[in-house]
């Protein structure tokens, strides 16, 4: 089993920045060479894709509304994945989840069903 724990959420004013971290523990070797991603869920809405990164870190993909503002990165040696969020907007308010895949057939994915392990989430609130 792999456990994912997110941190770094909080309350920030519009235009501000936050850096989310996701620490993996347990059988991390089972996910270190696979894609990792960030998703978010706002109240009353479905969980949506935010960003994903291949295990090498070479390939990254983003949801259209966060392109140019968010940056995903990972440190495989430390079993960490990060989401740097700049120029935050009130519509970015959500619970943010870290996810780890175990599929060897994909480099990255926008689909929640391609991720096997999930963290419990960290709240990000952006005030206007």
Fold and architecture overview:
By secondary structure, this protein is an all-beta fold. The chain contains no helices and eleven strands. Strands 2, 4, 5, 6, 9, 10 and 11 form a seven-stranded mixed sheet that branches. The chain has a four-stranded antiparallel sheet with strand order 1-3-8-7, with no helix packed on it. The mean pLDDT is 94.
Structure described in brief:
It contains no helices and 11 strands.
Summarize the topology.
Elements: E1 2-7, E2 10-13, E3 18-26, E4 36-41, E5 48-53, E6 60-62, E7 70-75, E8 80-85, E9 94-101, E10 115-118, E11 122-127
Parallel strand pairs: 2-11
Antiparallel strand pairs: 1-3, 3-8, 4-5, 4-9, 5-6, 7-8, 9-10, 9-11
